[in-house]
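Posting for a labmate who doesn't have an account.
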Amino acid sequence: MPVRSSGSRLLRWPDAQSVDHAARRWASDLAARDGAVVRVGYFGSYARGDWGVGSDLDLVVILSHCPEPFERRALRWDTTTLLVPADVLVYTAAEWDRLGDEPGLVRTAAREATWVYPRAA
């Protein structure tokens, strides 16, 4: 979502550093509220560095467990603090490990991911 530059009437799309900061804050808040959160990362254009005006943030959340069906998992979290529109994929740790060896979105996400929670030591 465009933001107004200080003292200007012009709108600009949030830069990668601002989006990364918002993602880290969102992930930390999420983990504080939900003890099942194991990891949070983003992949796609912001992780690759080829984002542009209109780019969304592709998030992946890994949970220790979750009884909800895959298609309903992301509905429980508010992503409006993330500065740009976000797509959230939520996997259990077992699903992530199993799917990571198969070609497809999970393998791509694992390869490209910038992990924002937990923070690297």
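Reply:
Got it, the structure tokens are right above this. The longest helix spans residues 16-33.
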